[in-house]
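User: Mind C-alpha cell order:
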Amino acid sequence: PGGFGEMHKYVRQNMQYPETARDLKIQGNILVKVSIMKDGSVSNAHVVRSLGDQSLDEEAIRLVKAMPKWKPGRHRGKVVNCWYTIPVVFKLSEE
C-alpha cells in the first residue's frame, strides 16, 4: 500500500547499512525477488543481483522480509500469488 514511493521510504527508514560495507564504500542496487502471497505477505525472498558483499545481501533480504503486507496480485478478478523483483538501493550519504 502506498506504491513504489512508500516502498523506497520504508527501505530508507529501516536500512541498517552493514559497517563492513560502509567501511569499504560499497554502494549500488541489489535486486531481491519475492513471492507476494494471496494474503499480501512476502515469502521466498532471494537475491537475483548482488553487489558481491554478503552483508549487503543479508540486509536486503532482512528489509524485504520485514516489509508490511502488500496488496496481493489479481488475475481475472481472483487474488493470486505472484512474483515481484524489488530493488534495494544502498547509497552512502555525502559526508
Observations:
- The CA atoms of residues 14 and 63 lie 7 Å apart.
- The beta strands are 28-36, 42-49, 73-75, 78-80, 82-90.
